[in-house]
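Appendix B: complex inputs.
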Amino acid sequence: MKKLLDILYAPLYLAAWIVEIIREKDKTTPTWLKLLAPVLAIGGLGIFAVLSFIQAFVMTAWLGNPMPVLGFDQSPEQPISFPHTIHAGVGPLIDSNTGNPYVSISGESRINDDGTTMEGLGMDCTYCHKQVSEEAWAGVPPVELCVSCHRVIGEQSNTQLQTLRNYGLYEETKSPINWERVHRMPDHVRFVHAPHIWYLTENPEAIQNKPVGFETLSDGTVAISQVCSTCHGNVAGMEQVWQDQPLKMGQCVACHRANEASVGCETCHH
Amino acid sequence: MVAEKQSKFKWGMAIDIDKCTGCQACVLACQAENNIPINTEDNFKDARGIEWIRVERYWEGEFPDVKAKFIPILCMHCDNAPCEPVCPVYASYHTVEGLNVQVYNRCVGTRYCANGCPYLVRFFNYWEPEWPESLQNQLNPDVTVRSRGIMEKCTMCIQRIRRGTRKAKRDNNEVMDGDISPACVQACPTEAMVFGNQKDPNSKINKMKNDKRSYTLLDHLKTNSNVWYLAKIDEDMDSHHEGGSH
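Resulting structure:
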């Protein structure tokens, strides 16, 4: 390792050596050698910067979400900028971090024409992600579900909605919406949504990152849409969905241990 | 072993050789269920074919009085598995439900386990598995696609076991005998294969493993196999032996 660093920092050593020569025989040193010293020194610093950057990337990826570079963006751009704020948000669409109304991807503030803040529709997560309580995957709805409302709802001038309606006319596009995946598990992990939903709805004390307006029903259970934030964060406050939790194996195991679930390897790796 | 007592399941399989017709439906079902890469003839010539379950064929007698005998061989899920202690990274792992499973993400591909297995039911991925474009969407989403350089083996369709147990737990039901079946058992047209919980005293598997015809493969190695075979009933052979004894 030391040798490797020596090689990488060779320009710095060389520069230092040249500076030493220049100090000793300032008058006899040729001009090209005088100029070479700063060039090598800057080159060495550049290599140092690159190495630090790689180190920072590896360390952030190790400890949590990686730095959003080289395609590791936690919030990828979607073909249609579906705002979870309007659909899933409850009450006025105000960002609790800044205190201002949310701003859409295209830069419009969520304010009505009369100056009041828009209100979220408060749709249940399972209206679109239907399979989440029955299957391994939550499921992205078919475009027909979007169009079932948006055939009539929304301004005609909205280009995003117009694209969506075109998707709905299958004859025109011949393809479903090519959503970018946000939460991607490695292929050796088999995460099944259903049992987690079943457990968390019946055991609300295990829910983490509780959403705004969290409430327990009279029989001690909670609605399905109240448990998602444990792993997905406050999706109702995301204009463009990002991965909130690092979703490392350590998190899975810690939660499984705390709730006395199985921690055998075969539980998830098969 | 302490943990094993806590689980209410101990899975096992019994195969009635007398019913096996050697139709290979189990092999095909396994291939489809578990995302096993397509084996070409060259793979088998190089001894690189991957079949979690295979039907071995034995010829007996001289032509024209020949008989074909078949025996399906799959992982025995030994209680005393020779593949487990040799793994340097604990990738070959015994679950509390009595299954021997391979933890793919731990495996570093030493192949010690395959060398240790007397039943030759562990397979190494020498190549990155590939499927033609038309078969990409038939891959089972419940099963990992194993990449190059790791071992794989029969899991007794653990994805089906987990699906069955969690459905039963949700409905507050007990897992009934026959609720869960691996792909090979489900596909067997003669119902020669039976899968079940050995801790359930009334299960079909318990009756079959206590049958007088039952035996386990390579019993003298004391692997404590969890797959029982029921010997073939061959009247010709019996009469032949009787004839010889006179």
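Chain B has one domain: 2-231.
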